[in-house]
Amino acid sequence: VRLHGVRTCGDNYKLLGSLLASLKEYFSSFKAICENFYLDLNEFEQIFSGNRTAFEIWDQEKNGLIDVFELFSGLVIFANGNLENKTRFLFEIFDINEANHLSTIDIEFMIYSCLNSSFKILGIKEPVNEMEITSFVEQHFPPNSEIKISSLIKFTTNSPQIIDFLKIITLQKE
Known about the structure:
With 174 residues, this protein is an all-alpha fold. It has helices spanning 20-33, 41-48, 52-58, 68-77, 83-94, 104-122, 130-140, 149-158, 160-173, and strands at 38-39, 66-67. It contains 9 helices and 2 strands; from the N terminus they run H-E-H-H-E-H-H-H-H-H-H. The radius of gyration is 16 Å and the shape is globular.
C-alpha cells in the first residue's frame, strides 16, 4: 500500500489513542443498546459522546450507518496498548458466536476491517485488496482451521507484515 499523501491524525479524532479498557467499555455499551452490527449517528453519540465529524470518518458512504467491526477495529489499531492486548480485543470482537476460536474467514474479515478502517482514518482512498488478504491468510493458516487466541497472539506478535503495518500507523498518529 502506498502511503503517499496520507494525512496524519494529530488531534483531529478524540477517540484515536484511547486506552483499550475504555474501548472495551464502549464495546460493552454497543452490545447493550444495538441489535445489529451498524451504528447510526444517535447510537454513536449515545455510546461515544461523539459528534458528527467523528461519525463521518467511518460513514464515508454517507448512508447514516457505520460498520461496528470497522469502527472498533480502527479504534483498537490506533489505541494505546501493546500488540498482544490489541489482538486479544480484536479476537473478542470477531468471535461473534463466542466459540473461543476464529475461522480463516473470520481472520480475513478481521484483517479487512482493520485495513479498511485504517484507510478511512488516514484518508487513503485506495480500496482494500481482498485477494491479497485471502492470499495472506492462506499462507499463514491451514484451510478450515480453528484459530485459538494463543495461536493468533503468537502469529501477530511474530508477523513482520503486521509489525511493519503497526509501525506505519504509529508514525501517522504523530
